[in-house]
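WARN no homologs supplied; continuing
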Amino acid sequence: MIVNKISKDAISIIDMRDTMYPSYSLATSKNCFIDKKDIGWSTMFGFSTGKSTIKIENLCLEIFPNQFFSIPIKNKDVELNVSFGVTFVVFRLGFLGHDIIGNLDTTKSGKLSYIDGCSDSLLVYPPRFGDASMNYLYFPSNITQSYHTHPSIRIGYVIDGFGFSDTDQTIPLEKNVFFCLEEHELHRFKTDNSFMKIVVYHPDGEWGPTDENHTMLNRTYIKK
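OK structure emitted
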C-alpha cells in the first residue's frame, strides 16, 4: 500500500501507469501543471476539499469545497490553481468518460450498503459496463472489515475522520492522506472511536449499462 500525507504547499504523485488500468494521480495544496505527455487522452476524476480552478486550454472551471468532478482530457495540458484546501485527481489514461461536476454532502453516510456495516455512494458512474467510477465510502466508528482484495488498483483520499488500513502492517489514515491499494493486495479498513470518510477511484467494475441493458431500453416494449 502506498500512503502519502498532504501538507500545506505540497504536491504528491502516485504513478500507476504501469498497471492493468493505467492511472496517474496526485493530491495537491498548491498550484501545479500536468503536462499532456503524462496523461494523453484520459479522464480526470477528482474531489476538492477547498476551492480551486482547473484550466484546460480555453476552458476554465471553478471547483468549490466538497465538489467532485469527471472531465475528459483530450491530449491537453491541465493547470490546477488551488486557492485553499486540497485538490485530489486521478487520470484514467486511454479512457474518455463523463463530463460531470457535482456536490457531495459529507454530513451523511453512503446511499448503498457495503461490507461489514460500511456504506458507499456512487459519485461518478461508469458510462458502460466495466468502465471507471468514483465513489464515496463511509466507515462508522468501531468497524472492522473482513479482509478482502480487488483485482485492480484503488486510489483514495481521506476527506474526514480517522481510521486504519491493515495490509502487511497497520497504517493510520487521517484527513488529507492519499493512498493506493495495489492489484490483489489483501487489506481491510477499521475504525475505533471515529468515523472515516474516503473518496476513492475504481478503474473498473462488473457493473454499468450495456447495449442490451440500459435505462432508455428498459421498459421499452415493441408493439407486434
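The mean pLDDT is 95.
OK
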